[in-house]
TrEMBL record:
DNA-binding region: 186-285
Locations listed in the record: Cytoplasm
UniProt GO cellular component terms: cytosol; protein-DNA complex
Pfam families the record matches: Response_reg, Trans_reg_C
Main location group: cytoplasm
Protein name according to UniProt: Regulatory protein VirG
OmpR/PhoB-type domain span: 186-285
Keyword Transcription regulation: yes
Organism: Sphingomonas sanxanigenens DSM 19645 = NX02
Keywords: Cytoplasm, DNA-binding, Phosphoprotein, Transcription, Transcription regulation, Two-component regulatory system
Gene3D superfamilies associated with the record: 3.40.50.2300, 6.10.250.690, Winged helix-like DNA-binding domain superfamily/Winged helix DNA-binding domain (1.10.10.10)
Stored PANTHER family: DNA-BINDING DUAL TRANSCRIPTIONAL REGULATOR OMPR, REGULATOR OF RPOS
Gene Ontology MF terms in the entry: phosphorelay response regulator activity; transcription cis-regulatory region binding
Length: 290
């Protein structure tokens, strides 16, 4: 029985084996999302409880123009429980965005027509969706450019399935989509009129406007707020941000700090991030917990 194609006649005939297949995806990775949990609930609550995790799996859009690599990458993600939409060009990517919510974008840089760099710029003007660049270009300059544009990570080709999935999980986890056990933390921090809401991973400016942050920028800000008015060495910031940065180097941290500074600066006051030459950075503001 194909447990992913249901109708009123076979819903109640699903066995425990089928429940397990529905949850784990042991049907070769071919998942049909056409049914709806509400429909299932009307027939059998047990099925609803088992199916729901599948329906709420993060949705990933993969943009890659190499067909074999696109297929292998999508398969690796599907086998680890993710929903995947594939695209080979910019127009196909925008169609995928229009079809529904996107939790993460895997974006090749060398694409026909509009390349990944230009696409990233356009996406960042519209959305703060997490982005992982995938590219055969692996120089420090290429990685830095990707991070400066707002990418959350940079994965160099060739890459293995384990590294791919680990980086995807890390980016989604930092975005709150891969829930992992963690220690208690305050719901909100405030400093200089700014407000940081941790459950929503949201930053509000003194005038109440929401300031878009990438996952890496939010994580860096959280690291500073956890140790205000204390010098944090670059090496420590690299360690804290390692799962976010494809290039774990002083230069990558400097780029990330520069991006965060720009977003925390106002006409009246510069960002409270102070450079301690030769050592690292300090968040020079009083933080109020709530």
């Amino acid at each position: 029985m194909n447990c992913f194609h249901l109708n009123a006649g076979n819903v109640r005939s699903m066995t425990n084996r089928c429940y397990a297949e529905a949850v784990s995806g042991n049907n070769g990775g071919q998942v049909d999302h056409g049914f709806h949990p509400t429909y299932l609930a009307a027939h059998d609550n047990a099925i609803e409880l088992r199916i729901y995790p599948l329906m709420t799996s993060p949705n990933i859009v993969l943009v890659e123009d190499d067909p074999p690599l696109r297929t292998l990458t999508a398969r690796a993600l599907q086998e680890n429980g993710y929903r995947v939409q594939t695209a080979s060009s910019a127009p196909e990517m925008w169609i995928a965005f229009e079809n529904g919510h996107v939790d993460l974008l895997l974006l090749d840089i060398m694409l026909p027509g509009t390349n990944g760099i230009d696409l990233c710029r356009e996406i960042r003007r519209r959305s703060d969706v997490p982005i992982i660049f995938i590219s055969a270009k692996n120089s420090e300059a290429d990685r830095v450019i990707g991070l400066e544009l707002g990418a959350d990570d940079y994965l160099a080709k060739p890459f293995g399935a384990r590294e791919l999935v680990a980086r995807v999980r890390a980016v989604l986890r930092r975005g709150g989509l891969e829930r992992q056990p963690s220690g208690p933390r305050d719901n909100e921090d405030k400093f200089d009129g700014w407000a940081v809401n941790y459950p929503r991973r949201e930053l509000k400016s003194p005038d109440g406007a929401v300031v878009p942050l990438t996952g890496a920028e939010f994580d860096l800000l959280a690291s500073f707020l956890g140790q205000p008015q204390r010098v944090i060495a670059r090496e420590r910031l690299i360690e804290l941000s390692r799962t976010r940065l494809g290039d774990s180097s002083d230069r990558s941290i400097d780029v990330l700090v520069s991006r965060l500074r720009r977003k925390l600066s106002t006409e009246d006051k510069p960002a409270p991030i102070v450079t301690v030459r030769g050592v690292g950075y300090m968040f020079n503001a009083t933080v109020e917990r709530s």
